Amino acid sequence: MNEQATLLASALAPASLDDPLYYLKNLQAVVTWVMTHHHDLLDAEELTTLQQLLQLSIPAQALLARMIIRKGELFRSDKLKYDEIPSSANALDELSKYGFINSNPLIAIEQIHKHCRRDELLNLLIAAGSALPKSAKKSELLLALETLDLATSASPLHAWWPEAPFSLVSLQCMALFDRLRLMFFGNLHQDWSEFVLTELGHQAYEIVAFDPQFRAFGDRDDVNSYLALHHCQTALQEASDITAILPLLPERLSNPWLEYRRQRLGFQMAQHAERAGDIPLAIELYTGNVLNEAKVRLYRVLEKHSDDSLAVIHAIEQDLQSPLRLETQVHLQRILLRLSRKMGKPQPRPKRQKLPVVELSLNNNDRRVEFAALDALTAEDQQEGFYTENWLFTGLLGLLLWPVLFEPLPGAFFHPFQAGPADLYRPDFVARRKAQIDERLATLDSGEYRDLIKHCWQQKYGIACSLVHWPVITEALLDLALAIIPAAHLKAIFTHLLSDLRNHRRGMPDLCVFDGRLQSYKLVEVKGPGDRLQDHQTLWIESMLAAGIPIEVAQVQWISPP
To answer: Domain total for the chain?
Structure first.
């Protein structure tokens, strides 16, 4: 750990929850972090605003923090009262003086209806000369508001209701705080409330160096590109006509992780066009997209709408010669078979490996089927089993690759409270770290991996890691796995995981059963009555069987009570 990383981490030490202003101190820490770490990505006006914020009185800062944490940008003054803030009125005056809020914003009719209670709307309408029965529903009052002279334009609250017993204030700095939130989190789906109120520091995290050369955002244009993608996605969720949104989509971006986000957004746009029935546009957007999911959707659309099935068949056959995810290959082969039958030239189905299945007839004692099967499979002496599902091998991989996971690379770490790199499940995760990953995997050949994994478990236990679920990776399970599972099997599983970590971390067998007498193990996928293997589970099992890894499917049937 370098000195700068230590200093920055200590600067972000969380406030105690016993402090009534802990949320403010956490937000102040984030603001200071961004100003320190991303100083050059903020313009002069933004820096001045943030410096001014930190110079406000504590009550004014606290009230602003409360408003930022809450949803929306418009607030009733009588709903801004907090025990730790002695005078909300004085704090609002200070915030208004320095431009953080507008104490007399223009209010549209929908906002009046949203922020006023039913009885208040009745009083407003009576003051405006409207006569309505007191039994009128709030939804009916909106129609009455629309008849007022002011309804055609936004006006201050006092123009709507001169006798209003409260005021409405609006935040004027949310765009800046959205930018800060993005630079800190690296995304805009995390909001201030979940982090400032609950997450900051209530978990141990690995300390990562935050040198400028490793920043995710290289310059202000990167931040602006992300915000443009976010605005485009927001518009997509709200719009019915995709053609109006397409011009908002940025051109190809030079930043790799931002370009990946752009491709995913382009895929969503293609899906939107397909659902809307604009098939030519959907085909155009799918064709220009590099994601495997786009290729599958493209051929499904062409299967239904193309007049030249033979050309589609040739295109699929050509794509099947290129590197594709296993699931993508399965989907394309199914489309190919359907089109071939349609053309009167049926092709033989690809041969699938026969999976080993064991039938279990068990009593249903209101237990999960996995645990009932586990008991049955470990009934003999010196057999010990664990419900591991997708956690055992991802956990072992995480422990082996720990230094690689937490190596600072551009686009990987945004703040000191990450459980892993932001690019962990992106397609280029392995390529960016190939030499380091190969070096760690080579320890499986030399035998060093056992000491490396056990030492990491001892040193890092409890520290958040995206690949390690600590409650499952107990010392007992770890010791058995390292002693009994052959290194060649671990290498095959790790290699398979790393070939497509986003998808291959799903579908692993439910149970791991060890036989102490034979010093052997097996993996077991459990299926209850009426349940069947999904594609990703079948593919995982087939891949591991090909590597000589012992796997079976336990098909459970419940024994009817006498």
So the answer is: 3
